[in-house]
TrEMBL record:
It is found in: Secreted, Extracellular space, Apoplast. This is Dirigent protein. GO terms for cellular component: apoplast. It comes from the Eukaryota. Keywords: Apoplast, Secreted. Transmembrane segments: none annotated. Its main location: secreted. InterPro entries: Dirigent (IPR004265). Homodimer. Dirigent proteins impart stereoselectivity on the phenoxy radical-coupling reaction, yielding optically active lignans from two molecules of coniferyl alcohol in the biosynthesis of lignans, flavonolignans, and alkaloids and thus plays a central role in plant secondary metabolism.
């Protein structure tokens, strides 16, 4: 039996006309735990109460600045969720939209990011890499890697979020 394409579907040749451009940013993402003196920039949505925080779900709106100082210029927000994803060890799956909010040419553009954050035996996040899996605006069709380096951990979780 021959199959035909439905009326709502069309296919054709695709020409890659994108111009590839590399963007290198050196930015600082700030996570303030729920209950921090400033009120925090994340909220526990599901407290699974399981070992290694497995199944724990946290919504976040982390700030991203152009320097490590608290008063450095705000350039973006990392909005999304992180989920406790490790049963044998504490590990977090991150899914964020990095929305640029400063007055540069990137304002309103978004990078979509997906990755994991592992924790050491003391419950402190370790360095890692996260995948850039797309974007909008200046970052349409983006792909690449975010290299995450822990600069300062002022609030080790020690099992608390």
């Amino acid at each position: 039996m021959a199959t035909t394409n439905p009326s709502y579907y069309r296919s054709g040749g695709c020409h890659d006309i994108r111009q590839h451009e590399e963007h290198l940013f050196h930015l600082y993402m700030n996570q303030h735990l729920e209950g921090s003196p400033d009120g925090g920039n994340q909220k526990v949505v599901v407290n699974s109460r399981l070992p290694m925080l497995f199944g724990f779900v946290v919504a976040n709106d982390w700030t991203i600045r152009d320097g490590p100082a608290p008063k450095a210029n705000l350039v973006a927000h990392a909005r999304g969720v992180h989920i406790g994803a490790g049963k044998a060890d504490e590990s977090w799956l991150l899914c964020h939209s990095i929305l640029f909010t400063d007055t540069s040419r990137f304002k309103g553009s978004i990078l979509k990011m997906l990755g994991n954050f592992a924790m050491d035996t003391n419950g402190v996040a370790t360095d890692g890499e996260w995948a850039i899996i797309g974007g909008t605006g200046e970052f349409a069709y983006a792909n690449g890697v975010v290299t995450a380096k822990i600069v300062e951990n002022m609030h080790p979780t020690n099992g608390r979020i």
